[in-house]
Amino acid sequence: MKQEYTITVHTENHIGLLNRIAIIFSRRKINVQSMNTSPSEIPGIHRFTIVINESEDVVVKLIRQIEKQVEVLKARFNTNDEIISQELALYKVSTEMITEKIKVERLLREYGARAVVIRKDFVIFEVSGHREETERLVKFFEPYGLIEFVRTARVAISKSSQGFHQTLKEFEEKEPTTDKVVENKYLDRNEEVFSM
């Protein structure tokens, strides 16, 4: 049975990785509902948050394919019950409509909206929350002439996870590096090695 899953992928930040991950989904004809990428809590490590609507067995296969990418350190998936997530939305509405027909104080209280920009011709409101909450405000503004609407991709944190930093520490404790560091003897001889 299909349901919404949030896939979290920790990677090194390399050019072309986003494209290779996107290809994994497109080859299987899986629609990505949202994708976010950002730095993680560890310097040099980035985090992808991908939302899809699929069956669990398909998601497990996707995770295996994603983890085959050299730059991918770890990929996980969670259901909506297992994560804390938010999205940010911006709404542009006519100032005239807002001042004449809407009680702004009620709007701010009831929807948790915040006025970000107020100009003579338009007002931009910001709301953060779940997709249902941001959609509810779209429906509210539609009769009043919603000029523009944009929503970010989901950002999510697992309720059970100790964080990727802890996972990395545990991995290092299980399999510590025992190899001695081998120094490259050609490192300081660029001109000799690379001269034409």
Number of strands: 9
Count up the domains.
Answer: 2
CATH topology of the largest domain: Alpha-Beta Plaits
**Judging from the principal axes of the Cα atoms, what is the shape?**
elongated
Mean pLDDT: 85
Query: Which regions have little confidence, pLDDT < 50, spanning 5+ residues?
Result: none
Please indicate the percent range of residues in DSSP E strands (runs of 2 or more): 35-45%
CATH-defined superfamily of the largest domain: ACT domain
Number of helices: 7
The biggest beta sheet reads: 5 strands, antiparallel
Cα end-to-end separation: 61 Å
Give the second-level CATH assignment, the architecture of the largest domain: 2-Layer Sandwich
Write down the secondary-structure element order: EHEEHEEHHEEHEEHH
Classify the helix fraction into a percent range: 25-40%
- Determine Rg (CA atoms, Å): 23 Å
Describe the protein's topology:
Blueprint: E1 3-12, H1 17-27, E2 32-39, E3 45-54, H2 56-67, E4 72-79, E5 83-94, H3 95-101, H4 104-111, E6 114-118, E7 122-129, H5 131-141, E8 146-151, E9 155-158, H6 164-174, H7 190-194
Antiparallel strand pairs: 1-3, 1-4, 2-3, 5-7, 5-8, 5-9, 6-7
Structure description:
The protein has 196 residues and is of the alpha+beta class. The chain has two domains: 3-83, ACT domain (Alpha-Beta Plaits, 2-Layer Sandwich), CATH 3.30.70; 84-151, 2-Layer Sandwich (Alpha-Beta Plaits). Helix content is 33%, strand content 36%. It is built from seven helices and nine strands; from the N terminus they run E-H-E-E-H-E-E-H-H-E-E-H-E-E-H-H. The protein has helices spanning 17-27, 56-67, 95-101, 104-111, 131-141, 164-174, 190-194, and strands at residues 3-12, 32-39, 45-54, 72-79, 83-94, 114-118, 122-129, 146-151, 155-158. Strands 5, 6, 7, 8 and 9 form a five-stranded antiparallel β-sheet that branches. A hairpin with a 3-residue loop joins strand 6 and strand 7. The longest helix has 12 residues, at 56-67. It starts with a strand and ends with a helix. The mean pLDDT is 85.
